[in-house]
């Protein structure tokens, strides 16, 4: 599965990405065992810096 977030860029980007992840988990769009795209792919798709994506690891 290739998960793609719908980011509005209204708040801190990494907080918004985490929020979208949480919503998609609760909606069961993301299920146990699903893999997210690689960091570089997320960076490109979401049009954010790699440092923003790396904040998600914290």
How does this model look, in words?
With 58 residues, the protein is mostly helical. The chain has one domain (13-55). The chain is 48% helix and 0% strand. It has 3 helices and no strands. It has helices at 13-26, 39-46, 50-55. The longest helix has 14 residues, at 13-26. The mean pLDDT is 83.
Brief summary of the model shown:
The chain is mainly α and 58 residues long. The chain has helices spanning 13-26, 39-46, 50-55.
The proportion of strand residues reads under 5%
Structural class: mainly alpha
Oligomer: single chain
- The helical percent reads 40-55%
What does the radius of gyration come to? 11 Å
Biggest β-sheet description: none
- The span between the termini is 24 Å
Overall form: globular
Task: Let me know the average pLDDT.
Answer: 83
The total domain count is 1
**Helix segment tally:** 3
Low-pLDDT runs of 5+ residues are: none
Total beta-strand segments? 0
Order of helices and strands: HHH
């Amino acid at each position: 599965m290739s998960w793609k977030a719908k980011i509005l860029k209204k708040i801190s980007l990494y907080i918004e990405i985490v929020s979208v992840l949480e919503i998609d988990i609760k909606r069961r769009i993301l299920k146990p065992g699903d893999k997210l795209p690689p960091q570089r792919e997320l960076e490109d798709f979401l049009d954010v810096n790699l440092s923003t994506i790396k904040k998600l690891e914290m």
